[in-house]
Automatic annotation (TrEMBL):
Keyword Transport: no
Key words of the record: Acyltransferase, Transferase
Domain spans labelled N-acetyltransferase: 2-163
Designated name of the protein: GNAT family N-acetyltransferase
InterPro entries: Acyl_CoA_acyltransferase, Bact_Acetyltransf, GNAT_dom
Domain of life: Bacteria
Amino acid sequence: MIELHTLESDDWPLWRELRLAALAEAPYAFGSTLADWQGFGDREERWRARLSIPGAHDLVALLDGLPVGMASGVPGEEEDSVELISMWVNPVARGQGLGDYLIQAVERWASDRGARTLRLSVMPDNSKALALYERHGFMDTGEPGDLLSDGVRRERVMAKSLATV
Ligand SMILES: CC(C)(COP(=O)(O)OP(=O)(O)OC[C@H]1O[C@@H](n2cnc3c(N)ncnc32)[C@H](O)[C@@H]1OP(=O)(O)O)[C@@H](O)C(=O)NCCC(=O)NCCS
């Protein structure tokens, strides 16, 4: 059974556990690195601040009661856009629809708050994530994403129009 929990800043230990696992397991997928969030970077107030972004929606997915996935929706640069970030599903739980579930939940939340566009950035060679996003109707915007550490490639910026209520 899949359940979703919306997190508040007091839930930072759970977010921390999942986020550190995500950065360790899938370093190819994220702009942040494990090193950014370890040692001096690993402080309660920092995790609390991450879960206190104004207007954001932070979700953890539980599979049969165990926390195995995460995603956030955060306000975008444009007033009517929202960004999907921090998407990760533990390898033990992949291929069971948790990714679908998380995207749909962020999409519902974004529509409810009146957003017209859901945007995301993805590494150009992250084929699993690209397939998932394309399956959900995200399309390449053609905008240049953040430059990667090789100084050549860039993240791909994708967007999906949301149904307005
Ligand atoms: C990308 C990622 C979030 C996908 O998570 P997921 O939970 O495996 O996603 P889903 O289960 O919804 O879909 C994945 C596959 O399982 C299939 N699937 C979904 N539900 C299924 C079910 N009930 N039974 C069988 N297969 C199913 C999907 O069709 C999909 O197949 P495809 O890869 O051949 O298209 C996960 O691989 C991940 O965390 N990767 C590392 C981090 C990452 O890349 N994050 C994105 C940063 S932009």
